[in-house]
Structures are given as C-alpha cells and as structure tokens.
C-alpha cells in the first residue's frame, strides 16, 4: 500500500472508533459484570461491563473465563 492509502485506511478506522467513558457505565452494570467475573478473574470486569453496557459481544480467547461466564448464564461471545 502507498503512504496515502495507509493514511486513508487509518483515518477510516479512527473515525469509526467510539470511546466510552467508564463513568458513563451505570453502577448496576458494573455490579453485574463484577458478579459474573469475581470468581474467575475480576480484572475482566471492565471488559464485561463495557460489553453489557453496549449490549455487545465479548471477544476473548480465555476459555476459563468463557466457561465460568457460560455457567452463570452469559452467552454473548464474539466468535470470529
């Protein structure tokens, strides 16, 4: 790719990013994410909170986390 094509592709990518301030995620969503993650890896709480807030799908290759979340009723995973 030429430099201008790379810059155009980068611009397209960056213009589609949506930044979410963690303070805008409701406390109840944080609590639900923590409840789902706490026994497996509470460090994953922010990722799950964002997923829940955006009604999205969690993209992870952490099979232990996936299994624990599935056991708690969470099934919204991104599977490429």
Q: Would you count the extended β strands for me?
A: 0
Total count of domains: 1
The overall pLDDT average reads: 96
Helix content: 40-55%
What letter string, H or E per element, gives the SSE order? Answer: HHHH
| SS class | mainly alpha
Tell me what portion of residues adopts beta-strand conformation: under 5%
Shape: elongated
Structure, described:
There is one protein chain. The chain has 80 residues and is mostly helical. The chain has one domain (21-80). It contains four helices and no strands. It has helices at residues 3-15, 27-37, 45-53, 63-71. The longest helix is centred in the first third of the chain and has 13 residues, at 3-15. The radius of gyration is 16 Å and the shape is elongated.
Give the key terms.
mainly alpha
Summarize, please.
By secondary structure, the chain is mainly α. The protein is 52% helix and 0% strand.
Write the layout of secondary structure elements.
Layout: H1 3-15, H2 27-37, H3 45-53, H4 63-71
